[in-house]
Design a protein that fits this description.
333 residues; alpha+beta; two-stranded antiparallel ribbon; 11 helices; 9 strands; 65% helix; 14% strand
């Protein structure tokens, strides 16, 4: 369970625990007060319920409309014409509905059941045992119905939330390599637009030859292995993605030295981990890379890194070209 859900559950239990106290005080106090004063206690409960629903933003239209209509029209009318015992019966229908908002699991029903027993005891104190028994029976029946509805709604919502999370993850990840695709990269760096960074364009050397010589299955295996290595080095300051084909785009929000060190570690891992074996022949796969000047995440920065990648390709491949100044810095493996 995430922190937000835990926090909202604590708030829920707190709100409705206070509701129990308010109801108890209102029940006892109503003996010597007018219906209008007694109604204030009811409206405190109603206000707490509506506030919680609006804050939680999960039950929206139907419950809001029903509770608003009930609070503004039916509820004042019933309070005006009801006797004390008839007011007590309202707890049978109102309280289970209010508690339903906090019921997510079976254990969550403990608090409203205790509240029902407490209210029944008060009803017995003010009326008769038969009235209290009928009151508790109706209360528990309404609580059961509202709880089933609440738990079903919550479970359905949780399933939809999980499905959305899964689809969102699938949409943001490259299916073959498991790292971010273009859409995923954009979504992850949108909050980092104001932070200075380096763009790195990385390309597998002679990838077309690998596909032509060993087949596309071997090409896919090379891409998968490279993606796994990049994923291992990914962090909040070093974001990796597949731009398309054999090209990969990386954003580094670390220092220049740390960026180069990470790239060299990637080179080393590729040297040992991405090889093509054919009979007794082992062919190592190499990459070329271009590092941009420091700037802010944008297509211009990517274009700068791409020009340096082209420089690496034109000058023998298997190297990194970084442009800290107008003169390129070549870092050979």
């Amino acid at each position: 369970m995430n922190t937000e859900v835990k926090f909202k559950r604590i708030i829920s239990c707190t709100i409705f625990s206070l509701g129990v106290i308010v109801n108890t005080v209102g029940f006892f106090a109503s003996r010597g007060m007018t219906r209008c004063i007694t109604g204030i206690f009811w409206f405190i409960d109603l206000f707490a319920f509506l506030t919680f629903c609006l804050w939680k933003k999960k039950y929206d239209a139907y419950i809001k409309i029903f509770m608003l209509l009930f609070g503004m029209v039916l509820f004042p009318l019933i309070l005006y014409v009801a006797t004390l015992t008839e007011q007590a019966l309202l707890y049978d229908f109102i309280m289970p509905s209010i508690y339903a908002v906090s019921i997510r699991k079976k254990r969550d029903i403990i608090l409203p059941v205790l509240n029902g027993i407490l209210l029944s005891s008060i009803a017995y104190y003010k009326t008769t045992i038969w009235y209290a028994v009928v009151f508790l029976a109706i209360y528990l029946f309404c609580l059961l119905l509202s709880s089933m509805f609440s738990m079903t709604l919550y479970n359905n919502f949780t399933e939809l939330e999980n499905a959305y999370s899964l689809l969102s993850d699938v949409a943001k990840k490259d299916r073959l390599t498991g790292i971010f695709n273009r859409f995923g990269l954009e979504s992850i760096i949108k909050d980092k637009k104001e932070l200075p960074c380096y763009a790195v364009m990385l390309d597998i050397d002679f990838f077309k030859q690998i596909n032509d010589t060993y087949g596309h299955e071997m090409g896919d295996e090379v891409l998968f292995k490279l993606g796994s290595i990049l994923k291992k080095h990914a962090s909040k300051d070093f974001i990796v993605s597949r731009r398309g084909g054999e090209e990969f785009l990386l954003y580094s929000f670390a220092s220049y030295e740390a960026t180069i060190d990470t790239l060299m570690d990637i080179y080393t891992d590729i040297e040992h981990g991405v090889v093509i074996k054919e009979n007794d022949v082992v062919k190592h796969v190499h990459i070329s890379a271009g590092v941009s000047v420091q700037g802010f995440a944008s297509e211009e920065l990517v274009a700068n890194a791409d020009r340096n990648l082209y420089h690496s390709k034109q000058n023998g491949r298997n190297m990194i070209t970084a442009r800290m100044e107008p003169v390129p810095i070549i870092i050979k493996k």
